[in-house]
């Protein structure tokens, strides 16, 4: 189970638009450079946070803990035998 191409491309485009497109449209004024910096840092941090969360779902550190009864029901519905042990 790897990364799907579309979500990575979509969210990269969204945060790229925020980080590249929005600073271009900032109004002229004494704080224009500060607003541009804030927009670019916001986009970079949000994209990086999203990417880390997305990648963490590919290989979770903790799996679900199921009781024996729940495992038996799942195995029966999938026509599998439970291994003793």
Automatic annotation (TrEMBL):
A GO term, aspect molecular function: proton-transporting ATPase activity, rotational mechanism
Transmembrane segments: 6-25, 37-57
Subunit structure as annotated in this protein's UniProt entry: V-ATPase is a heteromultimeric enzyme made up of two complexes: the ATP-hydrolytic V1 complex and the proton translocation V0 complex.
Membrane topology: Multi-pass membrane protein
InterPro entries linked: ATPase_V0-cplx_e1/e2_su (IPR008389), ATPase_V0-cplx_e1/e2_su_met (IPR017385)
PANTHER family xrefs: V-TYPE PROTON ATPASE SUBUNIT, VACUOLAR ATP SYNTHASE SUBUNIT H
Cell location: Endomembrane system; Membrane
Record-given protein name: V-type proton ATPase subunit
Main subcellular localisation: membrane
Keyword list, A-Z: Hydrogen ion transport, Ion transport, Membrane, Transmembrane, Transmembrane helix, Transport
Originating species: Drosophila virilis
GO CC, one annotated term: plasma membrane proton-transporting V-type ATPase complex
Function: Subunit of the V0 complex of vacuolar(H+)-ATPase (V-ATPase), a multisubunit enzyme composed of a peripheral complex (V1) that hydrolyzes ATP and a membrane integral complex (V0) that translocates protons. V-ATPase is responsible for acidifying and maintaining the pH of intracellular compartments and in some cell types, is targeted to the plasma membrane, where it is responsible for acidifying the extracellular environment.
Family: Belongs to the V-ATPase e1/e2 subunit family.
């Amino acid at each position: 189970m790897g990364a799907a191409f579309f979500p990575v491309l979509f969210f990269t485009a969204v945060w790229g638009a925020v980080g590249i497109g929005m600073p271009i449209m900032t109004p002229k004024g004494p704080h224009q450079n500060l607003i541009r910096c804030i927009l670019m840092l916001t986009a970079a941090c949000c994209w990086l946070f999203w990417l880390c969360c997305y990648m963490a779902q590919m290989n979770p550190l903790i799996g679900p803990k199921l009781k024996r009864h729940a495992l038996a029901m799942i195995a029966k519905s999938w026509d599998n035998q439970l291994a003793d042990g």
